[in-house]
Amino acid sequence: MARGGQLETPLGRSSRRASAENKDRFGRFTEWIARAMGTPMFLAILTLFCIAWIAWNTLTPPHVRFDSAANGFTALTLMLSLQASYAAPLILLAQNRQDDRDRVQIEQDRQRAERNLADTEYLAREVVALRMSIDSMTKDVMTRDVLRHELRALLDDLDRRDQTDVAPTEQHSDHR
């Protein structure tokens, strides 16, 4: 009979997914409550509610009053205490969810910063390598002025050789 209970539940179906969805739905609800309680509109509505409550229970005839001013508006105090007792944990739950999101965001920012640092270091190494190769190329390459000077020196050298070669041949032609 125990096997029959196992066969009734199809494989692959689990309550984990539904549970995660419910937790997320409840988490979104707590965030909505926390956001709503922190607005000026909420404070204005709560203030108007309290003013209306007190006005109703002090200005209306005694037989329609439901919270006595003589007892210090006990029902109003209990309602506000109940609201506060639920508000505080809901706000804390919303803050916890925000902390979790912040933690994930910080981790992503840290990873992005590490990648940016690695990219920057790589680019810096590449710039240094380019500078070094440009420096070595400029040391090996002659400038125009140096080339002109060397060519003039070669021409002068050739002219001197021609003059020294021409002079002995003239002497040889004179002797004949």
Strand content: under 5%
Structural class: mainly alpha
Tell how many strands the DSSP assignment holds: 0
Mean pLDDT across the residues is 84
User: What helical percentage do the residues reach?
Assistant: over 70%
Q: If you compute it from the alpha carbons, what radius of gyration comes out, rounded to the nearest whole angstrom? A: 47 Å
Overall tally of structural domains:
1
How far is the first residue's CA from the last residue's CA? Answer: 139 Å
Shape: rod-shaped
State the major sheet: none
What string gives the helices and strands in order? HHHHH
Low-confidence regions: none
Characteristic terms for this protein:
176 residues; mainly alpha; single chain; rod-shaped; 0% strand
How are the elements arranged and paired?
Blueprint: H1 2-8, H2 15-37, H3 40-59, H4 74-140, H5 144-175
Protein name: DUF1003 domain-containing protein
InterPro entries: DUF1003
Organism: Microbacterium mitrae
Structure report:
There is one protein chain. By secondary structure, this protein is mainly alpha-helical. It has one domain. The protein is 85% helix and 0% strand. The chain contains five helices and no strands. The longest helix has 67 residues, at 74-140. The chain starts with a helix and ends with a helix.
In short:
The chain has 176 residues and is mostly helical.
